């Protein structure tokens, strides 16, 4: 088999065989196929697309490019959740304990943040001592013991995706449905869960800007997951403004704790209840969505979901006291209110730009090697649809010095738009694809 023939076949609109796809993935992962040939094939895939059969074969070849986690030694149904990423997305911090408190085992591999979106691992590291560097054995035994573990993805899991994603990033080949599907689903399949729930975000702060594109991506991921034998559900959810109110690592942890304590609701709670219901029903832990919601709400009311977060924090080396006393979490020395330049209704909050405000404060990574400040970010005091008077606070900035606080306040103010009439505010949940 020759790589040049495979490239030419896809360039001319042909359908690649499983063997050709396997040859490419094995050869590229091993370093036998050079970047320039892989780039040419990726660009041909961007232009010509792939059939569902090709996408499945690509996904499975990538999944098997490294180690796969075998969760079969753990009793019960094992579930995993994935978000395509957004601003203020602390969903996993609240959702995973909520679900695990209902007896469904959550085995989650997570990533770090890059650019305007944050990562669950960075957020969890706000707990002093917390570590996501678990061996496979420690990961499995923790899921068995407390029903929940969150680990950083190891280098051995899906090495093909690591190489390919880095190459796609610099060759203009990220935006392709089969390439995105295979990248996300190969990692999820390799991580071994029986139930996979996908939060596919759409809007200004998301990877997929339109609901239609998010729906296409979600439908394809659900099909590939099912063809690979996993119970897979996708929720299309809005990312037109930051999720919840807090953006920034420790600030988001505090918000997740408030939700688990029953003192925070809104779009974040609705999202957690919807994703949680999908997980409980698909896992057989609830008879239907209404039953699942009731169980999840009871877990918040009786403190068991918050206690599960404390168990997780302790199991992974963190200070569990911080779950019940958030003054033990990092906090920034400077706070500054952002006065509203106008009155009326807030008609929008540019999500991507507001994510960049948090990044420039030091809360996110401009490059993979940036060191982040866990304490900084902002908390929105107004969200889309709220009324506001001129000069009233739109948000509170948390910064490490006065200068960066003032710069962030000016930038964040520019993310808000206003109107005289109440704007339409679509709910956070757009569609569920089962
Ligand atoms: N996230 C991934 O993991 N892979 C992609 O290709 C895009 C988003």
From TrEMBL:
A cellular component term (GO) from this record? cytosol
Q: Which InterPro entries match?
A: Glycosyl_Trfase_fam3, Glycosyl_Trfase_fam3_N_dom, Glycosyl_Trfase_fam3_N_dom_sf, Nuc_phospho_transferase, PYNP-like_C_sf, PYNP_C, Pyrmidine_PPas_bac/euk, Pyrmidine_PPase_CS
First-level EC class: transferase
Which chain positions lie within coiled-coil regions? Answer: none
Reactions catalysed, as given in the entry: thymidine + phosphate = 2-deoxy-alpha-D-ribose 1-phosphate + thymine; 2'-deoxyuridine + phosphate = 2-deoxy-alpha-D-ribose 1-phosphate + uracil; uridine + phosphate = alpha-D-ribose 1-phosphate + uracil
Q: Where is the Pyrimidine nucleoside phosphorylase C-terminal domain?
A: 345-419
Q: Provide the assembly information.
A: Homodimer.
Name of protein: Pyrimidine-nucleoside phosphorylase
């Amino acid at each position: 088999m020759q790589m040049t023939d495979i490239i030419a076949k896809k360039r001319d609109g042909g359908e690649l065989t499983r063997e050709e796809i396997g040859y490419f993935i094995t050869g590229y992962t091993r370093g036998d196929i050079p970047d320039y040939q892989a780039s040419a094939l990726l660009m041909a895939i961007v232009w010509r697309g792939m059939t569902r059969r090709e996408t499945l074969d690509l996904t499975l070849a990538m999944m098997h490019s490294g180690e796969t986690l075998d969760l079969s030694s753990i009793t019960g149904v094992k579930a995993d959740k994935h978000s395509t990423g957004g601003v203020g997305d602390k969903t996993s911090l609240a959702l995973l304990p909520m679900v695990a408190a209902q007896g469904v085992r959550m085995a989650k591999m997570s990533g770090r943040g890059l650019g305007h979106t944050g990562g669950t691992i960075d957020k969890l590291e706000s707990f002093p001592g917390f570590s996501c560097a678990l061996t496979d054995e420690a990961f499995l035994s923790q899921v068995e013991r407390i029903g929940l573990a969150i680990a950083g993805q190891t280098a051995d899991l899906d090495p093909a995706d690591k190489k390919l994603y880095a190459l796609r990033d610099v060759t203009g080949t990220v935006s392709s449905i089969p390439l995105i599907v295979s990248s996300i689903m190969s990692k999820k399949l390799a991580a071994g869960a029986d139930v996979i729930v996908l939060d596919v975000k759409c809007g200004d702060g998301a990877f997929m800007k339109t609901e239609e594109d998010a729906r296409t991506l979600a439908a394809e991921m659900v099909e590939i997951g099912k063809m690979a034998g996993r119970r897979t559900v996708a929720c299309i959810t809005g990312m037109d403004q930051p999720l919840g109110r807090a953006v920034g690592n420790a600030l988001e942890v505090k918000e997740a704790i408030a939700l688990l304590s029953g003192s925070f609701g809104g779009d974040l709670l609705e999202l957690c209840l919807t994703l949680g219901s999908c997980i409980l029903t698909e896992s057989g832990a609830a008879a239907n969505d209404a039953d699942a919601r009731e169980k999840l709400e009871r877990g918040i009311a009786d403190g068991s979901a918050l206690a599960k977060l404390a168990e997780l924090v302790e199991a992974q080396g963190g200070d569990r006291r911080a779950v019940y006393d958030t003054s033990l979490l990092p906090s920034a020395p400077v706070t500054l209110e952002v006065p509203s330049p106008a009155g009326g209704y807030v008609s929008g909050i540019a999500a991507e730009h507001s994510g960049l405000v948090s990044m420039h404060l030091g809360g996110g990574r401009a490059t993979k090697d940036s060191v982040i400040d866990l304490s900084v970010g902002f908390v929105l005091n107004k969200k889309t649809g709220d009324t506001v008077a001129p000069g009233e606070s739109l948000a509170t900035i948390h910064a490490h010095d006065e200068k960066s606080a003032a710069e962030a306040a000016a930038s964040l103010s520019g993310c808000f738009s206003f109107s005289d009439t109440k704007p339409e505010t679509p709910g956070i949940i757009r569609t569920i694809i089962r």
